[in-house]
Write a structure and sequence with these properties.
single chain; alpha+beta; 3 domains; 10 helices; elongated; isomerase; EC 5.2.1.8; ribosome binding; Trigger_fact/SurA_dom_sf; Trig_fac
């Protein structure tokens, strides 16, 4: 395994990974060997046909895809451990060179928690609340002020990934009510391009707020007690086993902490 790591100005981390063909071949052969056990060839019992005949029944493209799916996470985990990286997003994988009898070359893009400066956001929020006089300031107004005050640059690819995720979700929602994404955009008085720009801005704000709220919670020492997590599970309509609760504990703790942080900003 060979790696070349480049840190971009926007915070993205590009990893050029080269895996020797002999190592790729070992994994590929293992995937094929497992697959032929389930192949049925006329005249033979399941998994008992000669390997050359069984392989003819396989989707070789699928075999290569499965090889990569099993191989790359292992190498990525090794790189993360060796380089002491702390990724906060699923990596983007781009094949640079993938052909039989050749070393596999892959570009992996990831990112760690961005550095941000909270600045004088508290002063800006206080001014906003005082200026509103008797009118209660909404959470959206407060978050809008915070987004303007806090200095934070996100990797372009991270925003792209979040934008694509939100657009995919929107397409699914539109399909459920019998609409195309084009029709949805028209119903909002937007072109497809305008909709994409809008979703990109929303995606960027969503990501920024995620990191900003976490930093505010750290700075103001907002914590979550075990009892709060237990009460959350008890109040849930869904009956979860202890194993499921343990599996969801980190997510629930983060959710409660975020809610407490938002309430803290409103108070």
């Amino acid at each position: 395994m060979q790696t070349e790591i480049t840190r971009q100005k926007d915070g993205a981390i590009d990893i050029l990974l080269t895996i020797l063909w002999k190592d790729v071949k070992i994994k590929y052969d293992s995937v094929v060997e497992q697959a032929v056990k389930h192949v049925v060839v006329k005249g033979f019992r399941k998994g008992k046909a000669p390997k050359n005949l069984a392989e003819q029944q396989l989707d070789l493209e699928r075999m290569w895809q499965q090889t990569l799916e099993e191989l790359l996470p292992v190498y990525y985990a090794k790189i993360v451990q060796q380089e002491k990286l702390q990724p906060v997003i699923q990596p983007r994988i781009q094949l640079q060179k993938a052909a039989p009898d050749n070393d596999l070359v892959v570009k992996i893009t990831t990112a760690e928690k961005p550095v941000l400066k909270l600045g004088k956001y508290k002063k800006a929020v206080t001014i906003l609340k005082k200026a509103s006089k008797d009118k209660k300031v909404s959470l959206d107004e407060i978050l809008g002020i915070i987004l303007k005050e806090v200095e934070l640059t996100l990797p372009v690819f991270m925003i792209e990934e979040q934008t694509n995720k939100e657009l995919s979700s929107l397409i699914d929602q539109a399909k459920q009510v019998g609409m195309t994404i084009e029709k949805y955009a028209q119903s909002k008085g937007l072109s497809i391009e305008q909709l994409k720009v809008q979703k990109k801005q929303e995606a960027e704000n969503t990501l920024k707020l995620e990191f900003i709220l976490e930093s505010i919670a750290d700075e103001d020492k907002i914590t979550v007690e075990d009892k709060e997590v237990e009460d959350f599970f008890k109040a849930s309509k869904e009956s979860l086993s202890t194993e499921d609760q343990n599996r969801q504990r980190y997510f629930v703790t983060s959710l409660i902490r975020r809610r407490k942080t938002l309430q803290h900003l409103l108070d």
